[in-house]
Amino acid sequence: MTPLLHLSGLTKAYPGVVANDDVGFEIAPGEVHALLGENGAGKSTLVKMIYGLVRPDSGEMRLHGQPFAPHEPRAARAAGVAMVFQHFSLFEALSVAENIALGMDDAPETDALSDEIRSVSKKYGLTLDPDRMVGDLSAGERQRVEIVRCLLQNPKLLVMDEPTSVLTPQEVDVLFETLRRLRDEGTSILYISHKLEEIRTICDNATILRLGKVVGTCVPAEETSRTMAEMMVGTELKSPTKRPYQPGPVLLEVKNLQLPSKDPFGTSLRDVSFSLHAGEVLGVAGVAGNGQDELLLALSGEEPCEDAAITLKGAAIGSKGPNHRRLQGLLAAPEERLGHAAAPDMSLTENALLTGHARQRLTNKGFVKWQATQNFARAIIQKFDVRTPGAGHAAKSLSGGNLQKFVIGREIMQRPDILVVNQPTWGVDASAAAFIREALLELAEQGAGVLVISQDLDELMEISDTFAVLSEGRLSRVRSASGVTIEEIGLLMGGTEVDHAAA
Amino acid sequence: MLRLEARPEPSRAMVILTPIIAVVATMIAGGILFAILGNNPFTAIRIIFWDPLFNDMVASYTRPQLLVKAAPLILMAIGLSFGFRANVWNIGAEGQFIMGAVIGGGTALALYPLESPLVFPLIIIMGGLGGFLWAMIPAILKIRFNANEILVSLMLVYVAAQFLAAMVTGPMKSPVGMGFPVSRNFNEYQSAFNAELLSNTGLHFGVLVMMAVVVVGYIFLTRHIFGFQIRVSGQSARASKFAGVNPHTTVALCLGISGALAGLAGLFEVTGPAGKLSTNFPLGYGFTAIIVAFLGRLHPVGILLAGLLMALTYIGGELAQFQMSIPAAAIQVFQGMLLFFLLGVDILVNFRLRRDTKSKEAH
Fold it and tell me: What's the confidence (pLDDT) of residue B361?
């Protein structure tokens, strides 16, 4: 049988880096094919070539045995290739149907389109009301909008980039059901993910990329997550060892924290209460958009609240700004690396100054001690194994994993009493993720309180001592992490039965 | 088809070379323009860039003019550069320049004929204050109502010009001006006159202030946490908030500093080179300062050089108009080219051109 998509010798070089080097594999009709690899392995470049966003320097693609060289996404779509991106491109103030119409090359009338949406969503088990505003939808529902938009064009190949990163476990099950139906109808799926368990569940074959080259193929069902991860990284991985948790004194106490969101589509924090002890790793789970960003902003001091809502080592600090809190030992690392945790065009030295100047005493009467700052940056780079030619290089020139190591390292090196991190390993390769988790555990072991906000349940299960779920801006009761099942958490994350499950 | 592709890290050497390349390109394109107009391009370029400084026939007059023209441009551009780095877009330096001249100059007129060594310091303060307060209008509207500071500051230029006109036709009109809409001449008022400190150099008190501002500006930008915070604010609002910078403070500081410096420039100009308040007083320095700020890479030392260069094209341009009867509009085009080439080269430093050779064969 002719493969649906045949790739051979694909090469694409960017200044200073060969993103894809002689890449070739094939996807059969009705096959779910996984594309595995660390960040920077060249997955996105490859997918962009298939979708017509990037043109290969050399090599050949064949679709149904015919030469296939899309020069733009429209051409790729016309040939039957559809793509669901990791980051959605939806307008929050428009309805589902309007959003779908905007993304189609020849959209039918609104009524007809709404009917089509209903029938497609029913057929594939993707509940979706075409008249609802996208701004009111959960991340999972938004993804359905993207998927339905693709399905309306009857694709032969559906490319999905990290589709489950924003979903609850239950939503993941629904998604997989849909993907299976599509596969059974003969649609091929190219599935890109870091989550190896998922790949084992849903994918028939996997191609593994490392540094732009194909380093192996496997049948995921016959491998373990560990063996696949090792193929990806090229070395053996060690998983962090957890020490027994004995709660120390309360370091941080949050009581009835209310924070109305300034963004009309943001989430307000409602009545959030918890305490964080010395030596504790508190994991906060939840689906994206349920108040994670807001919780971090409230704790870092970027969004002040009532003084009494946050007590740090006995002092009420709710109205205090970030630098006051840093001096008192409360440090934070936000989710968005470029543009929030770090200034993209600034050097690593300057980025070290960004959060380090108060606590590390990098200024003298307002004048910056550049030599000391550079030494601080170099210490972070060395201790946290940040791969960069030097501290003078811009933050944006680093890969995601390396920048994340720098950002987390910058805070840990300041010896915080409390560290709040949001999505510490999001979009980070497996070895860097393991390194970061290890560093967080080590910090807790030294007596700091660590609050980890994450959407990666496996991560939270691995490192948390205690556990809570953030749903629609409310935080569930904090419970011990041992003995919680993924199903239970999933229900909490979906916002259902919060009271019942927490009771 | 040609495409722009972002370079991961622009070369440092190129960033510094950009203005020089832009000047050379302007000379070439300007030369072509002058040739089309029927003038000898080499003579024209020589008259603009060389004669004002080194031609003995004219240099005794034009050389001092260099500092006189450059000082207000540099003073204002440095103030603006802080804001531009922080994404605070004060486009209304011209208005703050006028208000500095009117408030500071008006104070002097009110005190006339009191002779005292305190008059000059007082009117300097009032000039700076006038520009500062005028710039606080867009600042407050921005902070309180999130009003766009570009529009507000720009509109206030025209308000300031009308205010100036009302003053010189009314309260500030010279009693000895034979009814013309001009104020009393400041060189008749010793205590308020911003005289040349060394004869035939163009060096007046404002030039000293300008030089001090270049030095202080440089130190603050590169060595002080304030300069750092401004640079962070310009790169990413969220990162600067995370770093503990209050965005409202940044807006107020940037507008306040640029307004005060523009006000000072206006005061030094009106009490010295211009000599009097009149409806012809605004010459567009406040707008030219925006070009100077960018030509100087928003860096104090760069701005110093860019201001001198810009002043040179002004003086040389006038000379070329005078000697070769090149139309004034052609000179303005020439100056415009400078900014055009600067921005153009800038794009090529940050992006590379790539040719999509294969786009034709695809369907």
Answer: 39
Please indicate whether, in this complex, the C-beta atoms of B242 and A357 are within 8 angstroms of each other: no
Nearest CA in chain B to A70: B362
Residue A487 contacts B where some CB pair is shorter than 8 Å:
no
CA of residue A492 relative to chain centroid, distance = 20
Secondary structure percentages of chain B, helix, strand, coil, to 5 = 75, 5, 25
A71-106: pLDDT as tens digits = 888 899 889 999 988 778 888 888 999 999 887 877
Confirm whether the ipTM is greater than 0.85.
no
Q: Test B239 with A322 for CB contact under 8 angstroms.
A: no
Region A156-183 average pLDDT: 86
> Under an 8 A CB cutoff, do A344 and B235 touch?
yes
pLDDT at A494: 64
| Fold designation for B40-325 | ABC transporter involved in vitamin B12 uptake, BtuC (1.10.3470)
pLDDT per residue as tens digits for the range A262-298:
777 778 999 999 999 999 999 998 877 788 889 999 9
A355 has a chain B CB within 8 A of its CB: yes
| d(C-alpha A103, C-alpha A117), whole Å | 13
For residue A321, the chain B residue with the least C-alpha distance is B244
Residue A388 C-alpha, separation from nearest chain B C-alpha, in angstroms? 13
Fold of A5-233: Rossmann fold (3.40.50)
Give, in order, the Cα–Cα distances in Å from B78 to each of A267, B212, B249, B305, B308.
Answer: 41, 11, 19, 12, 13
The overall average pLDDT reported for chain B is: 90
State how far the Cα of A210 lies from the Cα of A206, in Å rounded to an integer: 13
Question: Is the CATH code 3.40.50.620 the one for domain A250-502?
Answer: no
Residue extents of the structural domains in chain A: 5-233, 250-502
pTM (2 d.p.): 0.77
Q: For B47, what's the count of Cα atoms within 13 Å in the CB-facing half-sphere?
A: 20
Pick from B242, B356, B362: which is nearest to A300 by CB? B242
- Each domain of chain B, given as residue ranges in start order, spans 40-325
Tell me the CA distances in angstroms from B203 to A81, A488, B198, B273, B311, one per residue in order. Answer: 70, 79, 6, 11, 14
pLDDT of residue A242: 66
Asked if A345's CB is within 8 angstroms of B226's CB, the reply is no
Taking CA–CA distances from A350, the nearest residue in chain B reads B228
Average pLDDT of B110-125? 93
Using a 10 angstrom Cβ sphere, with 0-12 exposed, 13-18 middle and 19 or more buried, the burial of residue B258 is: buried
User: Residue A358's CB: how many other CB atoms inside 10 A?
Assistant: 18
A334 touches chain B (CB under 8 A): yes
Same topology, domains A5-233 and A250-502? Answer is yes
